Amino acid sequence: MFPGKVRRRAQTSRNTTGLGTVLAVALTALAGPVPASAGGSQDGAAVRAVEVFEAHCARCHHSGKLENPPAKGNLGNIVDLNNLVEREDLVVPADPDASRLYQIMQSRHRPLSVFFGPVPGPTPAEIGAVRDWIASLPGQQSLCAQKSQVTAAQVKRDIAVWQKAFENNNTEPLRFISLANLHNLCRSDAKLAAYRDAVAILIGRLTARSDVALDTVGDASVLLAFRPSDLGLTAEAWDLRAGPGDVLPVVVPAEVLAARALAATNPAGDSSNGSGGLLSRAAAAPAAAGLVDGLDPVEALATEFTRTVREPRAAVELELDQPALRARLSNLQGEAAILAARLIQTGLLRQDWEALKRGILALPNPKNFSSDLPASTPQNLTLSLWTDAMNYEVGDLLSVHVRPNGDCNLTIVAVEPSGLATVLFPNDTQMDNHVKGGSQIVVPASGAPFQLRLDKPGRNGIVAICNATAKRPPGVGHDFERQRFTVLGDWRTFLIESSDREAAYQKTQDDLRRFRTGAGRAETLEEQLPLGTEDEARAALTLIVSP
Known about the structure:
alpha+beta, 15 strands, 35% helix
């Protein structure tokens, strides 16, 4: 509707560089995601994952293959693994249990038509193939090893050079939009190019101009410059046009600008504040260029800001490396310390991260646009999961904290570095696993006759599953008369065999009931939990335990 273009002038800036542990009364424990399966290389795992996505997910989540456009759930590139890995809110490299994409598949949170339509849902083995692909991925630091970071000092220098060369008239100052955050989060060159075009589209929509031209600044091409007067605006009018809240600075992150614009809620056509009608049209206007990840380019850019914030993005936004970020977080107390642990271990919703960020920077609570962003508080069941520290050594004691946002039945599983999985909660001292929404569950509970001690180095993980209806996950059969803690065996094998184990458990229970007068048939898990339900939440974290 309002097309724009990005141009490159001759550069005037310099180069930019950018638990074997049996759980007992004095319990030693805990957990970890299993390594990549021995079934082949990373390339082989990727091929199998693509086959699963093509068969079961592409019709709703891949541009060009959609049965009913647009792409659902802000995901339209599920078959493009390189782009999918950039979604840190969906894929945590080397950690499938913590990856939202895998959690969604494992929880079967998909339309009923997937299961009862012409194509059956993915089998446990197929979901296991996706697990193996995620487990085979190198960590985030490896993914970014070949890409130089663009520092705040470099951005400031490039702006100064550009202003000196092209801002000759103080009455017609320049403004800058930055892609540095996205560059530093290792977005691909192709993705950054698409986002540069998205910025031009957005500015065209905001100004009702079809002739938007942006200059790239610096050799890294992470800055876009323009002169508001060229768009028929004063600098002050532009600074107010991008949305409610504080006036924009001279340079604004591109994803912030897009999120701010799309958060505007003024009725279409009401331009009494100089921006309302245009902003509303920005949210509704069709794309003037190709889709980005199956989404309108401006929407795709905005989701970079509004989705779950994990440690890499937090560090980038604070202009810190990750060790420095952790050092800052280690000094926090109270609720801020809980938010800090959740950030590192499972990520935070944007509004929670904004609150934590203000605490880190010792800033007051400003009146800014973040309060006007579309509500991202989930309507479905969710879990907050964290531990009492961010760093552990062999021999340390551990406390696990879980807080659901709604009533549900909670199961907490620990997975050792070897892959051995054990249910920590419920146990023979805490058999009732129904928890109230908003309540905080701590394992071990105060006064519990056991401790959790980390006795093995390496990747130790915790998986929490909470279901509003079913008392337990498939295949988890407790016998607290014989076992204080339910041992599941190898975690990956258990997940693949959970349906068979559930059938075997139900048969055993039916056999036992034959000897009990008046005992009726127990509900199966399938009867408790219809396929496609949204009433289950999963969360997971990994602890790297030092020797």
